[in-house]
Amino acid sequence: MSMKLSLPKVELRIGGASLSTGKWEDTYFCALHFFPDQKRWAVKSLQTLSQSQDLVPIDPPLSALVVDLPLTHVLCPHGHALNAKSVSEIKQKLNKLLDEDAMFAKTHPKKYEQERKRDELIDFKKNLLEQKTSSAQLSLPFKRKLKKGFAPHLHRPIDAWVWLHYFDAMHLAFGVTFDSFGHVSVPLLQRFSIFREQLGIKTEIAETNYWILLLELYRADIISKKQLLFERKGSEGASFRGHVVEQLESELGLFIYEQDFNILVKNPRAFASFLFAVAGLRRQQADLYQLPKWSLEQSEHFFVPHFLAR
After folding, report:
1. Are 205 and 75 in contact (CB under 8 A)?
2. Residues near 289 by Cβ (< 8 Å), separated by ≥ 6?
3. CA-derived radius of gyration, the chain
4. Is residue 112 classed exposed, middle or buried when 0-12, 13-18 and 19+ CB atoms within 10 A define those classes?
5. 278 vs 197, which has greater pLDDT?
6. Quick count: other Cβ atoms within 10 Å of Cβ 293?
7. Is residue 42 a contact partner of residue 255, using CB atoms and an 8 Å limit?
8. Collapsing DSSP states into helix, strand and coil, what is residue 308?
9. What's the number of CA atoms in the CB half-sphere (13 Å) around residue 15?
């Protein structure tokens, strides 16, 4: 399915950088440039980030940069704490799910156990993104997560929103969960603050998540369930990345040099940064989910793009 883009009238540069592992070795910075005279987007500036402390302005400057860091603490290090009312409302949302699950287990014990065992199997006829949170039956991993609770010093409201919409799919497909500060160190945030000075004040910075992007590509049928579960890493990882890059190149009308294509296919960090840049392109086109107001407190820069044609 085609993701048609309304082409801008001015030259734009949108970058992406995958940083959340805490290591900058072989961390690639990827930028998509739009050239009005040619009316097309091209992958440019695919390079490793400088590990030196010397500030060298990025040339040409970026219109926007998308990263996978909690920007709450990068852009507003002295921002306000989450107020008690917001914390209470979020906890009520999550506890309500646990209460409904407990009631279902009590009133339908046999059916509850049957559903639980069925959830432990991989059903290729079942969509990974089917919403379970609206039903009384919760998966065991999701229940364990909810019982640990929402802690305002560890989580942001966006964490709860992601859990409600992606927890089971992320856990099943990747064995991970979303936690704002789970993979981020203070030194990394400090290094990014220094790197940000290279960008200039005109660069808009936004935040998204790599695993969510893969799930949204799956929702858009760009990635199959088999690819997502079994072919995205190991010996088949390069083939998986090549498939995704080729699909996005075709759907979005991107131009990618052969040497850049080879880097995107061979290097997972370069590939992730490319996805962030593509997500930034979708954001520039205002093709993204409208997140509820409560989830964006402390996370106003977080977004999830659409990859479905609309």
Report:
1. yes
2. 303, 304, 305, 306
3. 20
4. middle
5. 278
6. 8
7. yes
8. coil
9. 25
Taking the C-alpha atoms of residue 69 and residue 19, their distance in angstroms, rounded to an integer, is 7
d(CA 270, CA 47): 8
Least confident piece of the model among 14-18, 115-119, 280-284: 115-119
Say if CB 208 and CB 235 are below 8 A apart. no
Looking at residue 227, the DSSP 8-state letter turns out to be I
Beta bridge partners of 130: none
Contact 170, 178 (CB under 8 A): yes
> What's the confidence (pLDDT) of residue 159?
96
- CA dist., res. 58 & res. 197, Å (int): 10
d(C-alpha 12, C-alpha 175), whole Å: 36
Cα distance between residue 107 and residue 191, in whole Å: 53
Residue 240: pLDDT over 90: yes
pTM comes to 0.90
Say what percent of the chain tops pLDDT 90.
47
Structure tokens at 55: 């500030």
**131 CB-near residues (< 8 Å, 6+ apart):** 165
Q: Which of 210, 209, 227, 207 is nearest to 218 (CA)?
A: 227
Edge-to-edge order in the sheet of strand 12-17: 204-207, 64-67, 12-17, 28-35, 40-48, 254-255
What tokens does 106 get?
Answer: 């009590």
Kindly report the backbone phi and psi dihedral angles of residue 145, in degrees, each rounded to the nearest multiple of 5, phi listed first: -65, -45
Nearest to 219 by CA among 131, 302, 147: 131
Instruction: Work out the average pLDDT over 61-71.
Output: 89
250 contacts: CB under 8 Å, gap ≥ 6: none
Burial of residue 100, with CB atoms counted within 10 A of its CB: 0-12 exposed, 13-18 middle, 19 or more buried = middle
For residue 161, give the H/E element and its range.
Answer: helix 157-174
Task: For residue range 97-106, list pLDDT tens digits in order.
Answer: 999 989 988 8
Query: 105 CB contacts (<8 Å, ≥6 apart)?
Result: 112
Q: Quick one: which H or E segment has residue 277? A: helix 268-284
